[in-house]
Amino acid sequence: MSDASQSGLCCGLTLGQWVKKIVVFAVTILLLSWLYGWASPRAYPTDRPLGFGHGALHGALMPMALPSLVLGGDVPIFAANNTGRPYKIGYIFGINACGLLVFGSAFWKPGKQAGPASPPPK
């Protein structure tokens, strides 16, 4: 038998660690779905054309719409009544800002700062 099967590890995690990760993932999905359901009516007004600010908000909220869409909800991710180019630029800005925060925080290692490369010893 391999070391992984003997020690109860799968991909470096024990069964308890897998269960914890799955529960945290499921709770996160449910929380994001609820949050998007709460924010959606407030973030998509229909009484006026929406500009850059709403575009940025919609772009930032768009990734949170995925769980709601997968679970069968028909939620908005883009306002049809918009100002055109400013709204679309805001939307792209919002998506990128959200990605920077999520993925930047996931890969940020505050203890490991890249310093100047030192020359190899002679």
Characterization of this structure:
- The chain has one domain (7-99).
- The protein contains four helices and no strands.
- The chain has helices at residues 3-7, 15-43, 52-70, 85-107.
- Helix 2 crosses helix 3 (52-70) and helix 3 (52-70) packs across helix 4 (85-107).
- It is flat.
- The termini are far apart.
Termini separation: 47 Å
Task: Kindly estimate the percentage of residues that lie in beta strands according to DSSP.
Answer: under 5%
Query: What is the N-to-C succession of helices and strands?
Result: HHHH
Helix content: 55-70%
The total tally of domains equals 1
| Helix/strand structural class | mainly alpha
The main sheet comes to: none
Task: Give the SSE map.
Blueprint (H helix, E strand, L loop, with lengths): L2 H5 L7 H29 L8 H19 L14 H23 L15
Helix pairs in contact: 2-3, 3-4
Please give a handful of descriptors for the protein shown:
single chain, flat, 122 residues, mainly alpha
Quick summary of this structure?
By secondary structure, this protein is mostly helical. It has helices at residues 3-7, 15-43, 52-70, 85-107.
